[in-house]
Amino acid sequence: MSQPLTKPNNSLTSKPSPLCAFLFLIILCILGFYAVHYPPRNPQNDLLFHQIFLSSANNNTISSYLRSLTSHPHLAGTKPSLETTHYVKTHFKNLGLETHTVPFKTLLSYPLRASVSLHFDNGTVLNLPLNEIGISSYAPSGLVQPYHAYSPSGTTQGDVVFVNKGTEDDYRALEVMGVNVSGCIVIVKKGGSLSRGAAVEIAEKKGALGVLMYAEGDVSRGSFRFGVERGTVMKGVGDPLTPGWAGVEDGERLELEDNKVLDRFPGIPSLPLTFESAQVILESLGGPEAPQKWRDSSRSKLSRVGPGQVMVNFIYQGEKKLATIHNVFAVIRGSVEPDRYVLLGNHRDAWTYGAVDPNSGTAALLDIARRYALLMRKGWNPRRTIIFCSWDAEEFGMIGSTEWVEQNLVNLGAKAVAYLNVDCAVQGPGFFAGATPQLDDLIFEVTKKVKDPDSDVATIYDKWTTMNRISNIDRLSGVDSDFAPFLHHAGVSSVDIYYGRDFPVYHTAFDSFNWMINFADPFFWRHVAVAGVWGLLGLHLADDPVLPLNYLSYAKQLQEHKDVLSSFVDGSMSLTPLDASIQELASAAKRANDEAKRLMEQGFTDDLLVLKVRALNDRLMLAERGFLDTDGIKGREWFKHLIYGPRRNHGSKLEFFPGISDAIAESTKLSQRDGQAAIRHEIWRVARAIRRAAVALKGELT
Ligand SMILES: *[C@@H]1O[C@H](CO)[C@@H](O)[C@H](O)[C@H]1NC(C)=O
Ligand SMILES: *[C@@H]1O[C@H](CO)[C@@H](O)[C@H](O)[C@H]1NC(C)=O
Ligand SMILES: *[C@@H]1O[C@H](CO)[C@@H](O)[C@H](O)[C@H]1NC(C)=O
Questions:
Q1: Distance from the CA of 435 to the CA of which of 39, 311, 332, 441 falls in 20 to 30 A?
Q2: Which residues form the signal peptide (predicted)?
Q3: What pLDDT sits at residue 37?
Q4: Domain ranges, ordered by start, for the chain
């Protein structure tokens, strides 16, 4: 196949003479003519290429990519991290792909010094080990000591209280026991629904002076009990100095002392602990007996919740500094619709070696690039543009992807068909997926075509549906990977897939190549499976003449959300506006599906039909943007998506409609009348958002 429209704008860079400009215009006209009259693609050919894609899977190449990427720890902003940047870029270049790097200058955070000592009533002082046991060297290998990024520096001393998982319920239980954590250092067992940052935020609100955090882990899958979970405690996403705009080298930057910046960081220091060091504190505590259900593990030495018998002196010193981060991109220009983008993204930076998090995903991404390049040598060219994205500084709060999305908001809003994310691609057995609902059908179709890595005959779909009975696709309300800026800020339909869940070496020094081959994927067939699903999703979205987006699934899912919501609000609250807008979306979806079927039957015989397909595709692409609201979610205005996004109230059980969820949680603090009014307003906002999506899908002015 010939390649029209490949990078014609290169010639724009040199100063054209009038003759050149004239010739250039003529060439542009010819290219434009050619683009419109591009010979219809043969769907059989696309299928053939999809087959070649599947059959060119190779566990050995994926394994070698992972080995190279994980040879050193590569924390964002450090030299070894820059080496992974070059590695990924060189890989793309060697495949002959158009490659570029986009740097940003952003505020990162590193530890300088930390210590935790116990002071017993009898005068004994005990310094607790804070680093992972069994790791021979930290500094020489480049391993960063365990810390919480963006924790303030500080020296604190006080009584200690165990607050279980640190939820509001846990503090209420302590209150009943007569324990007030105000002025104390709290010790939190990480897990359950609270994020690290949320646990610190609640502790601060309760008057705690500092937070020590440990995780229980799973000894059967590697020596996690010695591992320590690093992580960020920053609120929100993206560079704190450039909220809402891109952190480019010479751009505007807020001062570190700006209140908007300070609001992003916790007010009290926190630090992660080893399981062993945490037990030394727990077994020393006085005070009331701990409830039985807080002592859920046989290894736990907890008996009393504190305070008493022991004080803790806890010092943390860190530095926040500007560092250059690098996103790497490889682009395969679409042959028919170069101005429509399908993005496959994964972050590259890691807390330590990053074998699971995130480089199992990077290895899969690099292998998809290898296989797409192979298809290109066999004559394939995607209909739409495919963009591989390798993000930096995700671990600090999705910084690389957020800055880039902020920089490219208009182009993404107008042209991004879908964003396909993979982060911790391989954690263990079992397929998991999250997506915006219009992509559900495509995920099911694709998983029917990829072999299950743990079975000789079954497909991923077979295994997935038998394991979970019904296959279950999560929704993407969480803010825990790079889909967040795409979906929550730009309204781009998104997918997130992975094998296995809750891996025990998360963010520890043991997330290494060795752990991967010993515990998660000895022969790299789960990597192959993720790459298969991910790459095939990309091929369909890039090649299918009519975009495989089904909004009937969205309407059905919204109806289910509405039913769940009705059990949370009292009977007097009318949900009729939601019902009406969901009906409208369902009927627009049905019309769009019928139209798609009709167009497919007619084939692409003339230009008018080609334009009609393009118009339908635009409506399918843009409908997701309807869920955005310029005002955003109250109190977190950067988050614009009213269906999926983070809720402020961590105890809320609603995993959708974040604005409604917050209004319900906060209504208890208002008079009944004001509380009801606030909830009603949020219900109307969601109803209007759904209606906007429906109108965009219909594509007609009201
Ligand atoms: C002080 O108390 C701690 C904890 O109960 C104990 O481990 C230590 O041996 C005691 N030291 C002395 C000198 O009694
Ligand atoms: C806990 O103690 C602080 C400081 O003494 C006090 O202000 C606060 O009201 C107490 N909280 C509860 C729930 O009693
Ligand atoms: C690839 O798979 C084969 C067959 O399962 C296996 O023998 C080989 O060791 C695998 N390669 C790697 C690097 O694990």
A1: 332
A2: none
A3: 42
A4: 64-107+322-543, 109-321, 551-698
* CB of 524 sitting under 6 A from ligand 3: yes
DSSP-derived secondary structure for 14-74: S---HHHHHHHHHHHHHHHHHHHTPPPP-HHHHHHHHHHHHHT--HHHHHHHHHHHTSS--
pLDDT for res 12: 35
Cα 422 to ligand 3 centre (Å) = 23
- The residue assigned the tokens 């109190």 is 635
Ligand 3 mean position to 366 CA, how many Å? 18
Residue whose token pair is 């790079």: 482
Which residues, including other chains, have CB under 8 Å from residue 252's CB and lie 6 or more apart?
242, 245
d(CA 504, CA 502): 6
Ligand closest to 120 (CA) is 1
pTM above 0.85, yes or no: yes
Alpha-carbon distance 91 to 370, whole Å? 9
Q: Which of 201, 229, 337, 394 is catalytic?
A: 394
Q: Which residues of the chain have pLDDT under 50?
A: 1-16, 19-20, 22-39
Q: Are the C-beta atoms of 585 and 697 separated by less than 8 Å? A: yes
Give the closest residue (by CA) to ligand 3 atom 8. Answer: 523
Query: Considering every ligand atom, which ligand is closest to the CA of 456?
Result: 3
Parallel, antiparallel or unpaired: strands 148-149 and 384-391: unpaired
Question: For ligand 2, is residue 182 a contact (CB within 6 Å)?
Answer: yes
Residues 6+ apart with CB under 8 A from 256: 107, 241, 320
Give the closest residue (by CA) to ligand 2 atom 8: 182
Report the relative pairing of strands 185-190 and 431-435 from DSSP bridges.
unpaired
Q: Minimum-distance ligand to the CA of 528? A: 3
Which pLDDT does position 469 carry in this prediction?
Answer: 63
Which one, of 578, 650, 683, lies nearest residue 199 by Cα? 650
Task: Give alpha helix (H) positions in 452-524.
Answer: 460-467, 483-484, 513-515
Q: Is omega for the bond preceding 358 within 30 degrees of 0, making it cis?
A: yes
- Look at ligand 2, atom 5, and give the residue with the nearest C-alpha: 182
- Backbone phi, psi, residue 417, to 5°: -80, -45
CATH number of 109-321: 3.50.30.30
- 551-698: CATH topology: Transcription Elongation Factor S-II; Chain A (1.20.930)
CA of 447 from ligand 3 middle (Å) equals: 22
Beta strand 98-120 with 125-127 is antiparallel
Q: What is the pLDDT of residue 465?
A: 87
The strand pair at 210-215 and 185-190 is best described as: parallel
- Residue of 646, 503, 612 lying closest to 193 (CA atoms): 646
Active site residue 257: no
Query: What phi and psi values does residue 533 have, to the nearest 5 degrees?
Result: -65, -45
Which class is domain 64-107+322-543? alpha beta
36, HSE (Cβ side, Cα atoms, 13 Å): 10
